[in-house]
Amino acid sequence: MIISPPFLPDHAGQSDDAWLDTAMAQPASRLTSTNAPEGSFPLSLKLAWHNGIHIQAPIADGAYLPVRAVADGTVVFVHSPTARNAELDHPLNYNPLPTDVPSAAWTSDGLLVIEHKTEIGAAGTLATEVVYYSVCMHLSSIAACPRTGVAWSVGNAVYRKEELGSPGQIYGHDGQVHFEICCNKANLVSLTRRGPDWVDPLALTPPAANGRTDSVFGSLYIYLPAGTPTSTSRPTHHMRSAGNPGGAASPASDYFPPNTLHAPLWVQIAYEKGRATLTSYDTRGLAVGSPRNDSRDDYVHRANASTTANQSFEYDLYVASNDRHDALDAAAQATSSPSGWFELLRFGRNLGSDPLPANAAHWRKIVTSSGEIWADLNAQGTFKFSDADFLPVMGWNCFDDDPAPTDQRCDSLHMKTLIRDPDPKNDQRMQVAQLARRLGEAEVRKKLRRAICRFPSEWDQTSIEARYGWLEIGDSKSTDDDATSAQKWRRFVNHAKALSFPELPQAVLDADWRFHPREFVGHMRRCGWLSTQELAQCFPRKQLHLNGGSFNSSQITWQTAIARANEWALPFNRATRKYGVSASRQRLLHLFAHVIPETANLSMVKEGGGENARYSPYYGRGLIQLTHLENYKAYGEFRSFKRTFPSNNFPALGWDPDTLIARDNRGGRNAENCVDSACFYLVKRENMLNHLDGGISQTDAITASKDVNGYVSIENLNGLDARLQSIIYLKYVLLEDVTRSATEMINFAWRRNSRKEAVLDAQGRAVSTGNPPRPLMKYHLGQHTIGVPLDRQKP
Length: 795
Hints:
The protein is α+β, with helices and mostly antiparallel strands. Helix 15 packs across helix 20. The longest helix has 21 residues, at about 560-580. It is globular.
């Protein structure tokens, strides 16, 4: 799933969260009755349900940025905006703010609704599909579809980051839009796996099973019951003791064995750019102590270890998993593999099939109310989850208890209880005015960001009077006579009808479960699982390849791209998730930029002519092709292939790479291991993940190429022309860059000819070598300037 915000300001070195806050900033103006920003979610003026949030468009070069599609999809509804005017009695000039002198306050009525279909994981071979809608309202203009040249219309395919229109006005405030995210009940269940049930945040029940496995992304969350084994010193073993399996404590009887937790905890593990940050929470989701950064040195004593802990545990996961496997005795190693330990460290559980001892301990240093200790996160009674589970303890909750669900007034007792003054002595705390004033409080706004609420669309014109009838009396002043009250009501109804539509698609009306848009976008950006359509777009439609001394163009069609995406999507997603590559779209970009030339667009998973290579039979196999015996040995030992799949055909290896990776380029392959071995190489190669996280400049791309192909001179890097072009192309597919032209010029140093040329001496004569003598050949350095084709891969 790839998603971005509706505005794309410059990143300017910000973290993703900080950038999203800039891209989706709400207006600075606040409602006097709530002290909350105008157009907040899910409640606004007079405690009325509000579908989304108002966003103040960022400015670049003196102009508001355009509104863009947040994901690929299909346009299902469009309304072109009404031309702005200054007529005070025009329903779009309705001014809800009290003023002594009537004034026009224009509200733009341009609307565009997009249906998005994507994937967030898979159960076996069945993709976990999700359908949701993004709604952009108050547009002052509708942009032209790039493929038709005319304004967007129903049925148009739309791609992420394409321009939808211009931000308009909301009650006279320039450069603003309303943005919302919604889905129906079935897709809410697919998305969250927890369904629409509300959970009492003050009485959360302990989990009784692990979370979902079809979709796993973002942070990990591990529940530790009272009685979980702990240690005040670095553990010297990685197997659970038979005498202390964990989970044996009884808070009711106040019995706790020595070296155990006395109270349950939740532990969050967040991996990002090398760091593993552990944060502890109590059973109500309140932080315990301060987050800590993990280090391999917290778990394994090495003779030459630095006195300063290296806080890059994510980059050390490969080494740490081998540390734990190697620390076992021979009997325990027979049921173990470093790969199994790798998954335990990354996910808190083994999602794959590689062996892991049933009594494996997952020791991590955590924070408790009394300080830092080591705890076994895999002890009996522990349960594991991820951001894909939308955990109530992390604030996620569903609100569906409004007794009048067809109107726009919030009568949800659960919602009112969430936002009310926590002081029980305040006997007025459930009154509407007091509840409304709470909406501006920081702690309330934080809670509301993870509220998933069911209520009707405010854009449905067919039920305006029914949905807003409660305002007919509530909006009147005590000094208003009947005629004044009736006039106020009629002006509001006319305004509401001018901003609503009688012909909204039923599927949009049925999508009545609503997310906080900023929270949804930020949360789902952590999901690195690519749908087949998204993966297919990663194949550049056109590329230039050095042939002799000039560049020739090659092309891959959509039919070929989508066919290969269908073949490779599942193994690609599973392996990139396992090794943390899909945790960052920049890492995915580098991986795919290397895989494209390495495999001729996923068509070659065995080195051509490898049988004749001097290192045969250990020639290249897989997506980043394993080559040479030592690399095959390392991979086989990591996966424990020698024990699990022994073979006499490769005596120096002990397992058969023809069967377990690839035999030929005609379909004789194990697709799962072709991708797994490639991602294994990324995490095994020292500093490579760090290099992938460094950036996407030409220097970064060359460094990544050398990590794979060796630190040779640049003219000896095979496929560099395709890799540099792929980096440029993929940043427009996977990242937030917006294409401005059909090509992007690059200048780079590489071999001047695709074929080796003779070496000349100082007098210009060919140098010979060997007996009998033959010309000495090499690649000569040259400089190239080419225009990288940016043709989008699409049907």
